[in-house]
Here is the input.
Amino acid sequence: MNFLIAAVVLLGALCLLNLLVTFAVLRRLREHTAELESLAGRTPLMPYVPVALIGRTLPASGAVRPQLVAFFDVHCDTCHERAPQFAVAARSRTALAVISGDGREADDLVEILGDGVSVITAEAAESMVRALGVEAFPTFLRVSPEGTVLEAGTELSELKGLGEMAPVI
Here is the structure.
């Protein structure tokens, strides 16, 4: 009989402890949710628009200046999705792809872009990203023959002058 009473008291104590821990977790979740809601109200999310790149001049990297430049990052899923679209747009133009990062993902991007696109990777790519101040990937640029950025966007379709560019023969 004493064993049964001790077991019931122990079970009751465990249930009470479980109830106290559950209330503490619920209280902490409410505080955390309120904190997240207050942070969301203070910091509105602004979409990245690469207009700051317009007017900048590309660093000289070769004899022929590219008309179309794309900045990709190996860890960016959107970059892998947009790479085939850029490869198609680059078929009739001099194009340059700057791939931030290296490894197998960089090799995959180079393969998607094909032979018609000049590619810069590794350290040279990082220095070009820093030189132009690219903050988001992918970023697409339409460039004048003098190397000045005429248009910039995160979508290739945002480059309005893309259809007006003379194809390279």
The chain has a mean pLDDT of 85. The radius of gyration is 28 Å.
